[in-house]
Amino acid sequence: MSAFTVTSVLFQEQNGFQKTAIVTATGPSSYDTGGSVVDLSAGAVLSAAGALFTAVHAASLVGVGTAAAGLYDLAYIRAADGAPATGKFVAKSAATQVASTTDLSALTFTFRVQGR
User: Fold this and answer.
1) Which pLDDT score is estimated for 15?
2) Which of 24, 48, 99, 109 has a CA that sits 20 to 30 A from residue 40's CA?
3) 51-81: per-residue pLDDT in tens?
4) CB within 8 A of 13, min separation 6: which ones?
5) Of 4, 74, 82, 77, the residue nearest 37 (C-alpha)
6) What pairs with residue 12 in β-bridges?
7) What is the 3-state secondary structure (H, E, C) of the chain?
8) Rg from Cα positions in the chain
């Protein structure tokens, strides 16, 4: 199973129990049919910014890097109980899911995450 790798936190805000973050991530080197995981519960980048999540309610694509401009869209599939380590992004191109094993590692995606 491949995963999106969080590379930076552009914004993070905590309001009571609600947390919002805007993060960038590179795509997986071998995309998984049905979506590749994005772990928002651990990692040095998220930890340093205070942006670790204990639950993810929603995530949405904000933008893509120049290399992927207009080529890809991401849809977030929320894990059971909002588990932040096992939510997935399904990548689509022209409304069709990206083929399994497609290398998306050279692409940067920016997305907004909401949870706690």
Assistant:
1) 93
2) 99
3) 999 999 999 999 888 766 678 889 999 999 9
4) 19, 20, 21
5) 4
6) 21
7) CCEEEEEEEEEEEEECCEEEEEEEEECCCCCCCCCEEECCCCCHHHHHHCCCCCCEEEEEEEEECHHHCCCCEEEEECCHHHCCCCCEEEEEECCEECCCCCCCCCCEEEEEEEEC
8) 13
- Alpha carbon dihedral 79, 31, 99, 87, in 10-degree steps, equals 10
Contact in structure between 71 and 98 (CB atoms under 8 Å): no
- The domain spans of the chain are 3-115
Look-up: residue for tokens 């929603």? Answer: 58
Question: Residues 23, 9: contact at Cβ < 8 Å?
Answer: yes
- Residue whose pair of structure tokens reads 């969080």 in the numeric block: 6
**Placement of tokens 């919002």 in the chain:** 20
Low-confidence ranges of the chain (pLDDT < 50): none
**pTM of the prediction?**
0.90
